[in-house]
Design a protein that fits this description.
This protein is 57% helix and 13% strand. It has helices spanning 2-42, 147-155, 167-190, 192-204, 206-230, 233-270, 278-292, 299-315, 329-341, and strands spanning 56-58, 61-62, 66-69, 73-75, 78-79, 83-86, 90-92, 95-96, 100-103, 107-109, 114-115, 119-122, 126-128, 133-134, 140-143. The protein folds into two domains: 56-158, no CATH class; 164-341, no CATH class.
């Protein structure tokens, strides 16, 4: 009788463990799949063909710069201060005395036309006839790539806030999940103490970290341009490079800490029992933030929150969290308890 009771007692937890583990993984996978479905369901936009290109025609003489937004620009007369097209081509059949630029389009110079300044093309090409006239001292700067994307962006700037849900876009988001998961896993394995302290700091003093991040972002947003304007060139360049380096390091380490903290919080909510895996927490946290940053009209705010919080974590990484000029022993005890619970 005792042997039977002992066998039942020892086999019970083993059977319970093998039954609970697939259920826990299923719940985690269901949460991730639900996030992706919500993102795909919110963005149900029509990606139909764009409207026909109706160029703006300039006849006569223009004393100011000729420009067009969202369509091509055709110059049959004379533009004395240059010409630019955003989201279309610049077709020169007359004379342009200044520079010519096209973003999301091409610069086309027909026979008998003349361009007196430089030519700048982003997302297109520069094509000219053999009899077209150019200033011998002028230069041509051209980057032929992403023409359709730049054209659509210039014609519909709101498209930046509502990404098109196509197979390449979904593939890019999945690659982003894989990339940040690998980065998070590598940094957590290489520096577990640093990541753990950052997660505890974010969990216990998130508001103060955010305030410090906002102040740091404001200081860099105003300080870097001021240094470029008033300081000597070597010093201003050094300040700019150091600011960019700080943003890059804070962005990487801060995002890893945010992913870990979010994954642990979701594990406590979704998996109230059973063993918790650090790898699963990183994967869940990474998928959550990538899905959240893919939401239309919301992703700029999400990216701003991630950047400010990461900057706050980076600026407080080397300092003990001693606030109000006294050692916060309660914080240390709560951090130890948090590490043990995780």
């Amino acid at each position: 009788m005792r042997l039977a009771v002992a066998t039942t007692t020892s086999a019970g937890p083993v059977a319970f463990r093998y039954w609970v583990l697939p259920l826990c993984l299923f719940r985690v996978a269901a949460v991730v799949l639900l996030l992706l479905l919500v993102v795909m369901g919110i963005k149900g936009q029509d990606t139909g063909a764009s409207r026909a290109d109706e160029p703006y025609v300039l006849d006569g003489v223009s004393e100011t710069m000729a420009y067009s937004l969202g369509r091509s620009l055709r110059i049959n007369g004379t533009a004395k201060d240059g010409a630019i097209a955003l989201g279309g081509d610049v077709i020169v059949q007359g004379t342009v005395e200044g520079d010519v630029a096209a973003i999301g389009g091409s610069v086309i110079q027909l026979e008998g036309s003349s361009i007196g300044g430089d030519v700048f093309v982003l997302g297109g090409s520069y094509r000219h006839a053999e009899t077209a006239n150019r200033n011998p001292t002028s230069t041509t700067i051209m980057y032929a790539g992403y023409e359709e994307e730049l054209r659509e962006m210039m014609r519909d700037p709101s498209g930046l806030l509502k990404p098109s849900w196509s197979a390449p876009y979904i593939g890019v988001r999945l690659l982003a999940i894989l990339f940040w998961f690998v980065v998070s896993l590598a940094l957590t394995a290489a520096m577990p103490g640093t990541i753990s302290r950052g997660v505890a700091r974010l969990q216990l003093t998130s508001l103060r970290v955010a305030v410090i991040g906002v102040l740091g972002a404001l200081v860099m947003a105003f300080g870097v341009p001021v240094s470029l304007r008033y300081l000597p060139t070597p010093i201003s360049v050094a300040v700019t490079l150091l600011a960019l380096l700080l943003i890059l390091i804070a962005w990487i380490f801060g995002r890893v800490m945010i992913h870990a903290a979010t994954g642990r919080w979701l594990q406590r909510r979704v998996l109230p029992f059973g063993q918790r895996s650090e790898s699963v927490a990183l994967l869940v946290g990474t998928s959550f933030w990538i899905a959240l940053s893919s939401l239309p009209y919301v992703w700029p705010l999400v990216v701003a929150v991630l950047l400010v919080t990461s900057l706050g974590l980076g600026l407080t990484a080397r300092y003990p969290m001693v606030w109000k000029r006294r050692r916060n022993s309660n914080f240390e005890q709560r951090k130890i308890n948090f590490d043990k619970a995780a």
